[in-house]
Amino acid sequence: MQALADPARAQAVEVPQAQRSTATRRAAPQAGAGRIERTLAQWLKSCENRDEALWQAYTQSGIRMTETAQTLGLSVSRVSRVISRVEAQRRQPKP
Questions:
Q1: Predicted local distance difference test score (pLDDT) of residue 68
Q2: How far is the C-alpha of 63 from the C-alpha of 71, rounded, in Å?
Q3: Which end of the chain is more exposed for a tag (fewer CB within 10 A), N or C?
């Protein structure tokens, strides 16, 4: 039913909080918009560590967490936590 809702009203008070949050979740980059065409294997080879490679693959190439998890034999939850940790580290100012 949510798929039929008007996107402009996705943040309306009448829409339950759980559904509002899914409408505004950050999605992986789509085609165009500065997307870098690399595979997960290429990111793994070019980055310093696996965590950085997962973050780059997700944010720069738009590789989905599900695909990454299946490729590496991890759970989607684990991939999500790794990406979130890298994002948090990048937000912290460097001394």
A1: 95
A2: 11
A3: C
